């Protein structure tokens, strides 16, 4: 389909269609324009976000990161006071806090 043919079908000027093509190439096209052009082609626009990882894995990684950060902060303070614990104890604390985070309100994972 030529630009002129598509423009006629979409009820737009050819220059408008060309501008939309340039905007799309730059990633600047609006959803309303895409929707209108999809309809002109007899299509339905579907705008979706696709996670890179399974949601459960994202949640578990986030809980792990928070647990490690919180335990590291406490471990650092204790080390400054000469009360440091061993790495094995740190790992147990991380695992326990991670489990608590996963069992609790998930909203805490995103603050």
Textual characterization of the structure:
There is one protein chain. It is built from 5 helices and no strands. With 111 residues, the chain is mainly alpha-helical. It has 2 domains: 3-40, no CATH class; 55-110, no CATH class. The two termini are 50 Å apart.
Notable traits:
111 residues; mainly alpha; 0% strand
Number of helical segments with 4 or more residues: 5
List the helices and strands in order: HHHHH
| Percent of residues in β-strands | under 5%
Low-confidence stretches: none
Number of strands: 0
Proportion in helices: 55-70%
- What class would the helix/strand composition place it in? mainly alpha
Kindly give the count of domains.
Answer: 2
Shape: rod-shaped
Cα radius of gyration in angstroms: 26 Å
């Amino acid at each position: 389909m030529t630009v002129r043919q598509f423009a006629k079908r979409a009820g737009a000027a050819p220059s408008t269609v060309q501008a939309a093509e340039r905007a799309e190439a730059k990633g600047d096209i609006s959803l309303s324009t895409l929707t209108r052009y999809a309809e002109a082609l007899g299509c339905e626009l579907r705008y979706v976000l696709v996670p890179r990882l399974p949601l459960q894995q994202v949640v578990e990684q986030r809980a792990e990161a928070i647990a490690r950060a919180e335990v590291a902060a406490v471990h650092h303070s204790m080390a400054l006071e000469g009360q440091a614990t061993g790495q094995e104890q740190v790992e147990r604390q991380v695992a326990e806090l991670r489990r608590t985070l996963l069992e609790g309100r998930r909203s805490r994972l995103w603050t």
